[in-house]
Structure formats: structure tokens, C-alpha cells
Write a structure and sequence with these properties.
By secondary structure, the protein is of the alpha+beta class. The chain folds into three domains: 200 residues, FAD/NAD(P)-binding domain (3-Layer(bba) Sandwich), CATH 3.50.50; 57 residues, no CATH class; 81 residues, D-Amino Acid Oxidase, Chain A, domain 2 (2-Layer Sandwich). 29% of the residues lie in helices and 25% in strands. The strands form four sheets. Strands 1, 2, 8, 9, 10, 11, 16 and 17 form an eight-stranded mixed β-sheet that branches. A four-stranded antiparallel β-sheet has the order 13-14-12-15, covered by helices on one side. Strands 4-6-5 form a three-stranded antiparallel β-sheet. The longest helix has 25 residues.
């Protein structure tokens, strides 16, 4: 049977998009990679995050805000359908600062963005004493924080599992262990895999993360993406210590403190390093001194998928109409947008979001 859509890539981005298309009554086949694939979805820090995004492109801030606002209903619907609690908390998140200068400089940037967004950028600045009332475990070296009220966090592995379960429940097909080697188009798209599997579809979405760098040019995309390593670690389960997440640490729904993440330009290397973990630990202990006594139980590295300017890419192929590139490094934050709003764009519906600023044309050198 021919699908309406073939989704190349079965991570959070691909499955969120597939779920949204299925909700519109479309037939969807997802081709997921093998266990050797680099998987950002399985190494994610789990933030649903608006703060600091779109400083140079307000449309990205708006897109992130729209997704964050849709997350609660999205999580509730997925949870009701699958029985998976996604662990969503959206009570705000912190940008912690260790110097007054960095805090003031960031606030100045936020005020500029807030004006560009017509005032819709709800945050407040907490000095050390005010922050300590909210977070009694905060350390004396933290001079203050920016509390952004649209931020939160979720359990990314449960999100991935719930999406896969519900995609199947809704009639979608997920083919695991498939490495796509070729995409052709006549009247229909034909996607070929190295094991001989072939899938035909009316439209195709390339959401294969770093795999898009190789497949993209075959389909008429520039796909100018690169990997960036993020190392993360998690402690033993602890009593409640951290009430709201930050980019330094968050207490996950199961009790452990997740600490992260590095930003390293090391190519396709997702290993963990002692310097990387030591740096993370030092910063986390400076923020929350009690963590010096916590036992580390696991650490890992994963590769972010970054475009040259760090923003998502949403592009229809000029060479293969009906083929779309969908890639970003904020798959958790944007999961609700990809599920709720992106399908209208893929279908060319009247209610489609305006995603023109995220096209690949922004990378064209004149």
C-alpha cells in the first residue's frame, strides 16, 4: 500500500510529525535507522525551553512559544492514549548567573527581544535572596537568575516511547533498522534501503538528523547541518532538591539530578571525556553545593543537529516537489509544534504557519 507520507527518521522530530499527520487522517510510514545511528533523541536534556531562543530571529522565539503553549494538551493527549506519563512540568525555568555583569547583559538582550515580540516574553529577574527562597539549595556563588515563565521540562525517553506507541495505534507503520540509501521520484516517491526494503509515498519528509547531510543533497537540499557534542550525566535518585530546571541542572521526574550539557565541536564523536564531565560537575556544584555529595550513576554523550545559525530548517525541495527537509536541535521543545502545526504546512493548508524565515534560502551567498 502506498503511504501519503514516508518519514525518513524515527526520532522525536520524525515521530512528532508522523503523529500529527496521522491525526489528519493521512497514511504514514516511518523509516527508522539501526542501533549504530547517532540518536539525538535518546541523549536529550529534556527541556521545553523558550528562554534565550530567537535573540537574532524573533520568529524562532514565537515558534518556540507556540510549541511550549501547546505542550500541555499535547502531553495529556499522548498520555491518555498510551498510558505514558511524559513527566511534563511547566512552572518556569532559570538562567543562572555567577556574575552581575552577565546577568545585566542578558537582561538587556531579553528586553530588546521582548520589545520585538510586542511584550510577550514573560520573565522576571531574581536576585540571590529571592532565588534562594525559590531554591533553598542554591549556592552562594549564584548572584541571581532570570526566571522565564514559559519554560519547563519533560521526560524525553517517555516522549519517544509514547510517540512510537501512538503512531502505531493510529495506524502508522514504523520500520526499524532501515538505512535509506536512495530516494527517487516519478509520480510517487520511492525510498530504497540497504536491505532491499522499498517504500512508496506521495510525499516524503527527511527528518533523519545528521543523516540528512548525506541524503539531503540527493533530494535537492543543501542540508548544511553539523554535529555538536553534548555530554550529560545524572546522579542517583535524591530527595527533592531543585524545584525548577535550568541549563545547568534539572531534577528529573524519577529523582535523579541531570547535569549538562557541554557544547563541543568534535565532529561525529559522541564519547564522554573526563574534562567534559569534570567541567559540568564543577559548574553544577557551584550552583548547587549539595551535589558534591551526590553519587554519579550514568554519563553519556550525544550529538546535536545544528544549522549554521542554530535555527530549524523547514524546506520543500526545489528539485523534488513534495519532499521536505525538517531538522532542528530542539526536538523536545518543538515536538508539540511539529505535531500540531507543521502538518498544516506540509499539506499546504490555509491554517499553515509561516515558516519562510526557516527556509534554506537564508544560507544562499549572493
Amino acid at each position: 500500500m502506498t503511504s501519503d507520507y514516508a518519514i525518513i527518521g524515527g526520532g522525536i522530530v520524525g515521530l512528532s510529525t508522523a503523529w500529527g499527520l496521522l491525526k489528519r487522517g493521512l497514511r504514514v510510514t516511518v523509516l527508522d535507522g539501526d542501533d549504530g545511528s547517532f540518536r539525538a533523541s535518546r541523549g536529550n536534556f529534556g527541556l521545553v525551553w523558550v528562554q534565550s531562543k530567537g535573540m537574532n530571529q524573533p520568529r524562532y522565539a514565537q515558534w518556540s512559544q507556540a510549541s511550549a503553549a501547546a505542550w500541555a494538551d499535547f502531553a495529556a493527549e499522548l498520555g491518555d492514549a498510551t498510558g505514558h506519563d511524559l513527566g511534563l512540568e511547566q512552572r518556569g525555568g532559570y538562567d543562572l548567573h555567577f556574575s552581575e555583569e552577565s546577568l545585566e547583559a542578558t537582561v538587556a538582550k531579553y528586553e530588546i527581544l521582548k520589545q520585538k515580540l510586542g511584550g510577550n516574553y514573560p520573565y522576571e529577574v531574581l536576585g540571590h535572596n529571592a532565588l534562594r527562597l525559590e531554591e533553598p539549595a542554591i549556592g552562594p556563588r549564584v548572584v541571581g537568575a532570570i526566571l522565564h515563565h514559559q519554560d519547563g521540562h519533560a521526560n524525553p525517553l517517555r516522549l519517544l516511547r509514547a510517540l512510537a506507541d501512538d503512531v502505531r495505534r493510529l495506524g502508522g507503520v514504523i520500520l526499524n533498522g532501515k538505512r535509506v540509501t536512495r530516494v527517487d521520484k516519478t509520480d510517487l516517491f520511492r525510498i530504497s534501503c540497504d536491505d532491499g526494503t522499498e517504500v512508496e509515498a506521495r510525499k516524503t519528509v527527511l527528518s533523519a538528523g545528521l543523516g540528512a547531510a548525506a541524503l539531503g543533497p540527493m533530494m535537492g537540499f543543501k542540508a548544511p547541518i553539523r554535529p555538536q557534542r553534548g555530554q550529560v550525566m545524572v546522579t542517583e535518585k535524591l530527595p527533592k532538591l531543585i524545584n525548577r530546571p535550568s541549563l545547568i541542572a534539572r531534577q528529573v521526574d524519577e529523582g535523579g539530578i541531570q547535569i549538562g550539557a557541554t557544547n563541543e565541536e568534535v565532529g561525529l564523536d559522541d564519547t564522554v571525556t573526563q574534562p567534559g564531565l569534570s567541567g559540568l560537575a564543577a559548574e553544577a556544584i557551584a550552583a548547587f553545593p549539595v551535589l558534591a555529595k551526590a553519587q554519579l550513576v550514568r554519563s553519556w554523550g550525544a550529538l546535536r543537529i545544528l544549522s549554521p545559525d542554530g535555527l530549524p530548517i523547514y524546506q520543500q525541495s526545489p528539485d523534488m516537489p513534495g519532499a521536505y527537509l525538517v531538522t532542528c536541535h530542539s526536538g523536545v521543545t518543538l515536538a508539540a509544534a511539529h505535531a500540531r502545526f507543521l502538518p498544516a504546512w506540509l499539506e499546504g493548508a490555509d491554517a499553515a504557519p509561516d515558516l519562510e524565515v526557516f527556509s534554506e534560502t537564508r544560507f544562499t551567498v549572493s
